[in-house]
Amino acid sequence: MIPFVLPSIIFAMETSSVEEFREYILPNIKQVLTLDDPPQISLVLMQHADLLLKLCTTEVIKTDIVPMLLRALESEWEQLQELCLSALPNIITMIEGPVIKNAILPRMKKICLYGKRSNSKSLGVRVNCLLCLAKMLPHFDRWLVLDQVLPFLQEIPHSGEPAILMAIIGIYRMLLSHSKLGTSKEILATKILPFLLPLCIEQNFSLPQYEILSNLVIEMINRVTSEHKEALKQLDAMRRETQQLDQQLSQTSTIYKNINSINNVYYL
Questions:
Q1: What pLDDT does residue 171 have?
Q2: Coiled-coil ranges per the record (predicted)?
């Protein structure tokens, strides 16, 4: 029965003010937000996720909308997953860190690691999952990116599909250039470049796609070498300062020894 009356409820939501929705409609549909069966209910709600996000309070989004999105991520309906992936970036700032780490990322990882299926629809969901991840990335904690995101990016199965690879390359580009997520030369040299360099002989890229990859690899190598040269310069300067200090201490010690020797001769 609910799937038949839900369009009318949605229409009422569209024509009501925020205050009217929260006072008259929300109390009556909160239970509907928890339903998974029949799946048409979730589909209609997810198709109007933007409307729900606009009308609901932050607290309701945390307690009711986010769980609905998490269920959609686990759904076998790829259309539901697609709708959820398009909605998640809009509320990522309202979601607490533990929920991102322990609930959202594991579900997104499961989608991305779905397997080497040639089905174009499955490929589309995996690509959109990576694009969703890229949109949310600037709001993540740096350590969450290093501990959770980077490792699973390199586990994603692919058969050289440019769509998957370009989405991953786009995330690496963001990690390189974003001030908050700035990746260290150690991570670039030991984690990211070893993944990207073999792609430089991948046959499935178009020329523009390959240029994006090659430019990124060159920029990363330049970043690693320039930062390491600077680090070596600083180490060299510290070594020279240490040597100079040692020499000064040695000279001072010699002077004191000479003074002591003179004093000893004088008193004799």
A1: 95
A2: 221-248
- Among 44-58, 113-127, 178-192, name the one with the lowest average pLDDT: 113-127
pLDDT at 118 over 50: no
Q: What is the DSSP string of 86-127?
A: HHHHHHGGGS-HHHIIIIIHHHHHHHHTS-S---HHHHHHHH
Can you tell me the distance from the alpha carbon of 72 to that of 88, in angstroms, rounded to the nearest whole number? 11
* Helices and strands counted in the chain (H then E): 17, 0
C-alpha distance across the termini of the chain, in Å: 116
71-107 as b/e: b if 16+ CB within 10 A: bbbebeeebbbbbbbbbbbebbeebeeeebeebbbeb
Look-up of token digits 């690691």:
113
139 is written with which tokens? 């709001």
The domain segmentation of the chain, as residue ranges, is 1-93, 96-227
Which tens digit of pLDDT belongs to each residue from 143-181?
A: 899 899 999 898 888 878 899 999 999 999 999 988 777
